[in-house]
Structures are given as structure tokens and as C-alpha cells.
Amino acid sequence: MSKLSDLINAEDSFLVKLRCENIFDESKYLEIKNQIAIEIPVWKTQGFVLNCDVAALIGLIDQLAGRSRFFNEGTAIRVENACIEIEEIIDCLES
Q: Which pLDDT does position 70 carry in this prediction?
């Protein structure tokens, strides 16, 4: 496991709060975005992304895109925006 994977999937992680408690934890989300920003130059230099990071990012995007009928309107909008943000951040790997 990597730090990014742990931030996304650990027992007290962002996704656990989002899916189990319907809470969009801004501080945990910011940690994830910051960790991705740290990892991107490493991934570009290495020429690859660790399997556990790929799986964590796919899971994150999948869960954000899947939304939940239990989210209030504010959370639903924040989740949709977060999904777009993460996809845009990952898109910079192509450049």
C-alpha cells in the first residue's frame, strides 16, 4: 500500500466517510489532492504509476461518479465537482 492508497481506502479514509456516513470530508479530500500533486512528478519520472495507486484512483473516481441517493444537495454537488477535479489532475499525466 502507498500513502495515496491509504488516504483513499484505509479504515478511516475519505471513501469510508463518504460511503458509510455520507460525509464529504474536505480535509481528507485536500490531503488526497495534495498527495496526488506530490506523486505526479514521481510517476512522470518513473514512467509508471504503482498498481495500488491506480486501483485507489479508479476506486475514488468510480465512487465519486457513482454518487449516492442519500447525499444532500450540497454534498452531491461537491462530489460531482471532486470527480471532475480528480480527472483533470490525472489528465496532466499525458502532458
A: 81
